[in-house]
Amino acid sequence: MTARNSEHGFTLLELLVVITLIILIAGIAIPRFAGVTDEGRKAKARGELKTLQTAIESYLLNTSPTLPAAAGGNLTDIQTALEGATPRLVGEVTDFVDPFTASSTYLYKIDTNSRYYVIHSVGPDRTADISSMSTSGDVTGGPDDDIFATNGQLPS
């Protein structure tokens, strides 16, 4: 009787094939999951901007016919006005953090007559594309992928 070598294991070629397949699957799956994350951030931004828009509209109807000044271009400029408005529709304005920056509030701009406003998120490209509001209520600078709420309109 002859003794047979009964060693079990994988060859180098088999291991390379398996590793290649794992890399290919990961290369397909990871970008898809990144897109899902951005969609979640977009939904959060839309919801929070709608809440802030409701608070600003309530402020305009119940407290003052003109908008609070926007010196720094972010929501902390109008924090006192919104938190002191009656009825109070938002808690701490600083709780509303742009999900695409994770460190700053949404941006806020008004026209020079304090009639039109836009509040916006920088969006997935993390660059603010909206630059200002015109006195006719046009959002200027182009929204690109910014997510926004306004009582004005996009220029035609």
Q: How many domains?
A: 1
For the largest beta-sheet, the strand count, sense and barrel status come to: 3 strands, antiparallel
Rg, Cα atoms, Å: 26 Å
- Provide the β-strand percentage band: 5-15%
**The CATH class:** Alpha Beta
Principal-axis shape equals elongated
- Please tell me the overall pLDDT: 85
**Largest sheet, order of strands side by side?**
1-2-5
Task: Give the structural class.
Answer: alpha+beta
Order of secondary-structure elements: HHEEEEE
Q: Quaternary status of these chains?
A: single chain
SS field, number of helical segments: 2
Helix content: 25-40%
Please tally the β strands and state the result.
5
The CATH topology: Glycoprotein, Type 4 Pilin
CATH architecture descriptor name:
2-Layer Sandwich
Low-confidence stretches: none
- Distance between the amino and carboxyl termini: 91 Å
Which key terms come to mind for this protein?
single chain, 156 residues, 3-stranded antiparallel sheet, 5 strands, elongated
Task: Characterise this structure.
The chain has helices spanning 12-62, 79-83, and strands at 107-110, 117-121, 132-133, 139-140, 147-150. The protein is an alpha+beta fold and 156 residues long. Strands 1-2-5 form a three-stranded antiparallel sheet, covered by helices on one side. A two-stranded antiparallel ribbon has the order 3-4. The chain is elongated. The model has no long low-confidence stretch (mean pLDDT 85). The chain starts with 11 loop residues before the first helix and ends in a 6-residue tail after the last strand.
